[in-house]
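User: hey, got a sec? need Protoporphyrinogen oxidase folded
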Amino acid sequence: MRLTCAARGAFQQLRAPLALVRNVPRRSAHSSSGPFNAAVIGAGITGLTAAYRLSKRPDCTKVTIYEKSTRVGGWIDSEVIDVEDGQIVFEYGPRTLRAVAPACLPLLDLLHELKLEDQILYTSKASPASQNRYIYYPDHLIRLPSYDRNAGLISNFWRLFNLFTQEPIIRHALWTMISEPLKDEGQPATDESIASFVSRRLSPEIADVLVSSVYHGIFAGSIDQLSADTLMGLFRDYERTDLRVLGTMMENSREGRSTIPADDVLALVPLIQDKGTEYIKHLSGLVKSNSTLTLKKGVGQLTEALLAALKRSPKVEILRGTDVKGIFQNPNDSSGLGVVCGNNQTRHHNRLIATNSAPSLARQLEYVSKPDVKRPQKTIELLQDHNYAVTMMVVNLYYPNPNLIPVRGFGYLIPRSIPSEQNPERALGVIFASESGVGQDSAPGTKLTVMMGGHWWDGWQESDYPDHDTAIKMAQSLLQRHLNITDTPTVARARLQRDAIPQPTINYRQRMLALSDSAKGELNSRLTLAGAWYSLGSTGVVDGIRQAYVATEFGVGGVNHKTQELAADLFGILTDKEGEKANFRNMPNATGGGGGIPRAPIRAILTPRDSRQKYF
Ligand SMILES: Cc1cc2nc3c(=O)[nH]c(=O)nc-3n(C[C@H](O)[C@H](O)[C@H](O)COP(=O)(O)OP(=O)(O)OC[C@H]3O[C@@H](n4cnc5c(N)ncnc54)[C@H](O)[C@@H]3O)c2cc1C
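Assistant: Yep! Here you go:
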């Protein structure tokens, strides 16, 4: 691969630390911890990835995975179904994985390690699924503005002009955006909801229609409850500048600067250390023209391949159907934690990575009540406070007719402002699944997924949820009303996903940082938290994998000087600021020799284009 001059310079700058780490055994990266035996609770994507990474560490002597279910994968659940003319894939959990560097680079590395490259299906940025995203408002589909790479400048302008003249909400959005920089800053001292932030900066209507739809799609959550500081922290920072949000975004774009979550960069450190900068650039090149990816037999192919790789490792023991009941700190031995399983057997581990939900972990830490075992009371309370996740129904439908959907695209989302007569099913959105996973099905036809519930079902009892057949009828009725689809699906399967998506509610980040500190302090840095319930930003498969990389590199045992220097160099080069290096030299203060929620000492970095392009 040819390097640009700038990239060559960067490569040379990284060369010194790289050369150092390449010439010493891998073990030296974690020299301060010594040999240890580790355990992971949960075999979802985060737990499986963490176990896989730990199994590669020479200083990790044994990895035990505890999974309460008899299957692995957690929310990842793909089904390959035979139909008349071939096969189709239904997803009951995640289906499209973000393919944006640097966030997706650990995922790509994992796919490479598991030899799944030829199973990847990329969705190009120019495809209808990337270009066309709709909302249903007020009673028809509106295509959200985006630049169509397949059309010229004039047709793009014409399309925007038409949207502007025909759709009052788009007209309103443009006006409010243009006037945003003129509004005074009015930020409350603490966190606020997304609805509050967007209403202040733009308008309540934009929050109700456009923004509520987006968060129905990502969190199935309510913008009245989701935290602006956690999910829109960057924009809140921009609000405090003279140019406000839009002005700062335009200025950054004009100067070629973009913001990257610092944890995404931190996760690259082990990759650079093991495989070098060229490898990072190679992986980034794979996704340059793509927006998402999936696998030929569904996302479940990834967890199946991880399971197979773990089974091959003599270090790994996988205990399926094993519910962890208790976790405790042995009063006579500060070097580890005891884990009590369903059969009341206790095992001891030097390091534990928990990926199960916060309420489940709180129960485990409360379980052991021997007089000499000190309970981590503050940690338990913080975990008990983090107890809100939404339940949703996923309905997959397959029709042999390939021409059922009136438009092409990823699908549509339904805003909270839609009156219940138009959405009595309380649907969140519809995915045009044959378009979002092109190449998965060998049978022709149309595949649709209807998502219902989420925050709309808060407070519902078990008996309130629709059963399997009712859910399918509800989905069909919605599709008839919204898309005029009257055909009967030949395969239809619904799944109720209880407490599936944890919600980062107001003050979430602050609570998570307190949880991280107390877990570290009360459990002697032996308990590390990772996964969807402990994410400090977005939650998805890519984020779980990234957290597993960060947790196994920086959250388990000490981080040695060379790893730290490499991280400092990387941040220094990416930001083009010597000052950022200092932040990263202090990293052990943030990661503290392991435990808690491992993370970078700062939240995000601003990278000039030239610096960024040296890596991705
Ligand atoms: C319907 C749906 C659609 C989604 N769509 C997408 C998407 O398109 N793209 C995307 O990127 N993300 C998507 N997500 C989010 C993504 O699926 C999750 O963020 C991710 O799978 C979480 O993985 P995890 O390993 O952190 O947690 P989990 O998958 O929840 O794994 C935790 C594991 O811990 C186990 N466990 C719990 N308690 C115990 C115990 N006491 N003892 C032992 N084991 C225990 C559980 O059985 C489980 O296997 C979706 C989620 C849902 C529900």
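Quick note: Residues 1-31 have pLDDT under 50 and may be disordered. Let me know if you need anything else on Protoporphyrinogen oxidase.
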